[in-house]
Specification:
The protein is of the alpha+beta class and about 160 residues long. The strands form two sheets. Strands 1-2-3-6-7 form a five-stranded antiparallel sheet. Strands 4-5-8 form a three-stranded antiparallel sheet, with no helix packed on it. It is globular, with a radius of gyration of 15 Å. The mean pLDDT is about 95. Bound molecules: zinc ion. The site of zinc ion has 6 residues, from helix 2. Zinc ion binds next to helix 2.
């Protein structure tokens, strides 16, 4: 089932999401619906609060396979790097954001197993963007120079992918 993606004015997107205590059937169904929603958007990442569930669950797929991480936590960071980002919840807006270049993410997979992912480049950026959603932070909140926030006219394709 394709879910509605909430827009940035929705208060759920400003809240700190709660940890997932157990991977229930409800959670597994939500993961399936979130994957369908992310692919349909189309997007390369989606966080549960974006579809109205204030829980710590993210999906990421930059075209190299799907990562589903429950209660994700960044345990290591290195370097820094700036990329123009967009967000499915902030349509038609893009701006450069500075983030860590390499990160290690720990969490749990849908089978309830502890996992650790080492990510760099685009994958690292998408993980940081999605984990920010769990803390009520939008990419525009991280833009240092607000003059660099750009409106993308409807005839152009924006980077509304995260
Ligand atoms: Zn986003």
């Amino acid at each position: 089932m394709i879910l509605e993606i909430l827009k940035s004015t929705n208060p759920i997107l400003k809240k700190k999401a709660k940890p997932v205590k157990a991977v229930t059937k409800e959670i597994r169904d939500l993961i399936r619906d979130m994957e369908e929603t992310m692919r349909a958007a189309p997007g390369i990442g989606l966080a549960a609060p974006q579809v109205g569930h204030s829980i710590r669950l993210i999906l990421v797929d930059i075209g190299e396979g799907l990562h589903v991480v429950i209660n994700p936590k960044i345990t290591q960071r290195a370097g820094s790097h700036v990329m123009v980002e967009g967000c499915l919840s902030v349509p038609r807006i893009e701006a450069p954001v500075e983030r860590s270049e390499k990160i290690t993410v720990k969490g749990m997979n849908p089978q309830g197993k502890n996992i650790e992912i080492k990510a760099e480049g685009l994958l690292a950026i998408v993980f940081q963007h999605e984990i920010d959603h769990l803390d009520g932070v939008l990419f525009v909140d991280r833009v240092k120079d607000k003059n660099l926030i750009r409106y993308v006219p409807p005839k152009e394709t924006g980077k509304e992918v995260l």
